[in-house]
Amino acid sequence: MSDEESSGVVRRDRFSGGPAREFMSSLAADERIFAADVAVDRAHVVMLEEQGIVESEVAADVLAALEDVEAAGHGALPDGEDVHEAIETAVIERVGPDGGKMHTARSRNDEVATCIRYRLRRDLLDAVESTLALRESLRETAEEHLETVMPGYTHLQPAQPTTVAHFLLSYEAAFARDTARLLDAYDRTNVSPLGAAAFAGTPFDVDRERTAELLGFDGVLGNSMDASSARDFLAESVSALSTHAVTLSGLAEDLVVFANKGHVELSDDYSSTSSIMPQKVNPDTLELVRATAGDAASGLNGLLTTLKGLPRAYNRDLQRATPHAWRAVDDVSAATEVAAGAVATAEWPEETLADAAADGFSTATGVADALAMAGLPFRTAHEVVAEAANRADGETPDLATLDAVAEDVLGDTLFEYVSREHVERTLDPAYSVASRDSAGGPAPEAVATQLDEAAARFDAHEEGRAERAEALESADGRLAAEVNARV
What we know:
By secondary structure, this protein is mainly α. It has helices at about 5, 10, 20-25, 35-50, 55-70, 85-95, 110-145, 165-190, 210-215, 225-230, 230-260, 285-310, 320-345, 350-355, 365-375, 380-390, 400-410, 420-425, 430-435, 445-485; strands at about 150-155, 155-165.
């Protein structure tokens, strides 16, 4: 059978040609859901045979043909408008007209929606796995630097001393929320539309719960019109990926800036040099991680813009919606893996960080806090320290300067409120960090608690990912057993 003849098997001559065929075809892009379509076809045929809708002999022939089509691969499919039509055509070529019974009681509308969900849920679990690897890198590095003091910044200006562990765990907490969002997106993706047909259901006595079970879905979408047309699971997934990419971009930006200041040394595996300036060590990979957020956000915008004007039930615009999800999940997962590697292999120069931790009178708040603890209104204490900083021209003021300002502002010596020894301690970045032991703070004991919390979150999310993955593997085994019993 020629390509031209085979392409007309499903649609016949009326819709088999014309200049719009290539424009409408998604066959090449559908390679991603080839395996998903074969699985969905198998589950549907098993259900049709169990329900007495298709004869056992026909079901066996179709399932055998699907095995042959799968072995031949996507590249061997005949021309078609999409992978669904091409696979059906390939089955009919092998079985004859009875091969067309595989499409009984369904439409390409519910079929494609099922295939997308079937594939995307696995991609989401892979994305979750990459976030877990990144969080593990952050946590392990934090454990090594519980007491490594470093400068903290707001508005990119020296603010207060903190630690490398406190900084890294701030991102671990954010990535944990990203992981939770991806798992939530998985759960709303993992429901089956199969059996909804075009949008108005079918008169055949189908068992939608059975196909959902065979394919590892947690349940079915009840309303058939919603089931065939809904793509909010794509929007939720790409939104979760985009949010995660924004968090990634923040981490990448901080590491790029810190590398510029000499506060972190990135491995050569995650850097490159200039083509003309051999002394350069450029944080190129992290710059690309940073850029991924823009790609993901644009994909989300494109997806939402495609969906926003659609009338209910199926519209062909949806064919243009799905690629946004594939690009987002691939790009963001790859960027996450790179970020994990960059964190795991980076070096944090402790002496350099300790020297920089006091820059810009970063312990000023500690002095103000000490005065406030001694009974001064915090705003008055703030005024004293601010004036001392002004007189020291941005440097850390000495005790004489602080005392002189206190005399001017308070009419009394500074040491009527706090001891000389205590003021000296508050000017030390390490003491400043150690004193900030409130829940979530940078003091080592407070960070140790955060490490325990991070480990507990990690274990819960890893267990959730593993349970979902195991459920899919079990479903694959059930479907394979049903197919083997018939072929």
